[in-house]
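Recap from last week: sequence in, structure out.
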Amino acid sequence: MQAILVHPAKPDAFARAYQHIGIETGVSGASPHQLVAMLFDGVQDSIAQARGAIRDGDIQNKCRSIARAMRIIDEGLQGALNTEAGGTLARDLDGLYHYITLRLTHANLHSDDAALAECAKLIEPVRSAWREIGDRAQSRRPAADNP
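Predicted structure tokens:
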């Protein structure tokens, strides 16, 4: 499943996206699956920060947080999709990421909290499914391989 969603020619795309975007975490020892999970977390965190900034009237932080979410989606999640091997699933995710980016742009231009809530709601099932895939894969490993 991971090879379908992660382009094999871009194995370091996630780590570069993290370093470039500035997400603080232990990237160096993380698996590609864990890196994608961190990207999903980064999107949700950025959206939450933008929503708080809108409530506080902090335009600069709103813009910064939304820009961060957009970069994570564009450079990390969407940029690393393997559309060749991923078939319909990868194309659907590509469309979803594109739509979320459009809604984030709208939210930024109009300080639209509802659009940010929509983005968070749209990304959450994908985030949860990705975590579940990792949890299932982890539980199938022999005990010696599980830390």
